[in-house]
Each structure stands twice: as structure tokens, then as C-alpha cells.
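C-alpha cells in:
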């Protein structure tokens, strides 16, 4: 079963895009990364998806799971 994801990625023409995982087109474009992260986090929480933030070079900076995690952390008790 494929994961439902949203990604904040750099746009080659400048700024930042919010994209749905596996999608070619952006959901929305932003001039500032923080604006893209704030909007993307709300969308991800609303849709219960994995939220992935990328660096300017395209590598992953951070990710948060807002849905059912297929690999939840084990309890340390």
C-alpha cells in the first residue's frame, strides 16, 4: 500500500512548492520556505499524511507522520 505523502520542495525557478507524493504538479507555490512548511503541515494534518520537508539541494531535512504510521516507534517501557 503506497504511503500518502506531502513534500515541500525547492522550485527550479525560485521559491518553494508543496507537492503530493508521486505528483508532478505542485499543490501550491510559495516565495518563502516557512510559508510552504506552515501551509503544508496544515494540509498534512488534515489529510493524515506523512509530511516531508526538503533542503534547497533536494535532500530530506525533516519528516513528520500525521497519519497512521506503518512503522510506529516501539514503546521503550
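Residues out:
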Amino acid at each position: 500500500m503506497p504511503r500518502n505523502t506531502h513534500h515541500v520542495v525547492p522550485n527550479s525557478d525560485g521559491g518553494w512548492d508543496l507537492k503530493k507524493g508521486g505528483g508532478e504538479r505542485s499543490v501550491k507555490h510559495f516565495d518563502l520556505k516557512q510559508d510552504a512548511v506552515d501551509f503544508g503541515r496544515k494540509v498534512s494534518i488534515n489529510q493524515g499524511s506523512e509530511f516531508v520537508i526538503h533542503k534547497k539541494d533536494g535532500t530530506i531535512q525533516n519528516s513528520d507522520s500525521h497519519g497512521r504510521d506503518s512503522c510506529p516507534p516501539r514503546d521503550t517501557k
